[in-house]
Amino acid sequence: MLQGVTADISHMDTGAVVRGFLGQPQLESALTGMDLVVIPAGVPRKPGMTRDDLFKINAGIVRTLCEGVAKCCPNAIVNLISNPVNSTVPIAAEVFKKAGTYDPKRLLGVTMLDVVRANTFVAEVLGLDPREVDVPVVGGHAGVTILPLLSQAKPPSSFTPEETEYLTKRIQDGGTEVVQAKAGAGSATLSMAYAAVKFADACLRGLRGDAGVVECAFVASEVTELPFFATKVRLGRRGAEEVYQLGPLNEYERVGTAKGEK
């Protein structure tokens, strides 16, 4: 199967060289010399499955992969997608600390799907092209910990209390919406792949030295008392080179931030 997927992707007319690696015996070969490692590995969430259930399975997978990163490419920027991100990122941090390779700027939990959903849903309400909309999403990557900062949306917009409640709730429950719609066949995959590529591309532009690459990510917190928190970061050659403060919040967002910190 892997060989087939590798061959299939390698036929695309891009500048990328495609190679396939299978299983833990080939993990070191896959990781050696990498500048950017994207970790989407793990089981998807199914109906009735809590994020705690996911954690029990995915934690071990993330630990093994991060041990490989620490050994083979300790200076790589890591994009961690495996859910629950709120828990897998701290696990990865502990693996890197134990190995003596931890750099908080290089460990990025990918919450881009929350931003992608926020841009899409806000664009629907405003009647705009989603590509013209940019909504920062802070906090975490599960339920009420997800907080879209609608007051900081671009273009600047005003929302009624009803619109604010609807948008916030839908963005927070976006993952569950897909799980229920798939009726047991899995969770978000295509939209997650899109968001993952979008964020990885931003990291690559940062590695290249492009200026002004700013995205939201779940990183070692410099804005709250929590150890990790999603906020805007400026991406560069060392990863999240600058972590931005939350900025001015309205009353609804202040209350939401308090919920996310509990």
TrEMBL record:
The active site is at 141 (proton acceptor). InterPro entries: L-lactate/malate_DH, Lactate/malate_DH_C, Lactate/malate_DH_N, Lactate_DH/Glyco_Ohase_4_C, Malate_DH_AS, Malate_DH_type1, NAD(P)-bd_dom_sf. Pfam families: Ldh_1_C, Ldh_1_N. SUPFAM superfamilies: LDH C-terminal domain-like (SSF56327), NAD(P)-binding Rossmann-fold domains (SSF51735). Residues 2-109 form the Lactate/malate dehydrogenase N-terminal domain. Belongs to the LDH/MDH superfamily. MDH type 1 family. This is Malate dehydrogenase.
